[in-house]
Amino acid sequence: DIEQLLAGSTCKGCRGRLRPLSKPMAVDAASLEAIVKSTRLPVLVEIQLKGSNEERDQAGALDKVAEHLEGKLIVVKLDAHEERDLVLRLGVETVPAFVVFLAAQVAYSYEGHADAAVIEEWIWQLTH
Asked: What is the pTM of this model?
């Protein structure tokens, strides 16, 4: 179940504790919808063109945010080319872009590059 994946769970084989997502996860529109609807955590969506220079430039900041806010934030990546209809419905006109969902609703969006400290500040302001 997606909630167990997001919250962390126990491995059925070794009974070891599995960590919540601490790395950005690539998603499609259906997966994003399932995640957003099934969690109380904020969901940060990076909208990017897969394999682009911009995606590579932004990757370090996104990884840092996912690791630093592990268990407090879900970080996903959405390919703007593959999910064009969703990207347009979200009002995104340029990439990179970020959308933050809280309680299954868009709470914040930003178009352009952002470093880890800026992204973490958005999340702090939205959740405090």
From this structure: 0.86
- Mark out the alpha helices in the chain (DSSP H runs): 2-7, 29-38, 53-68, 84-89, 116-127
Residues 83-109: pLDDT tens digits?
A: 999 999 999 999 999 999 999 999 999
- For 67-82, what is each residue's pLDDT tens digit? 999 889 999 999 999 9
Residues in a beta bridge with 65: none
Strand partners, 64: none
Structure tokens given for 27: 């998603």
Contact yes or no for 56/110 (Cβ under 8 A): no
Tell me, what amino acid is at 17? R
Taking the C-alpha atoms of residue 57 and residue 113, their distance in angstroms, rounded to an integer, is: 9
Q: How many CB atoms lie within 10 A of CB 114?
A: 20
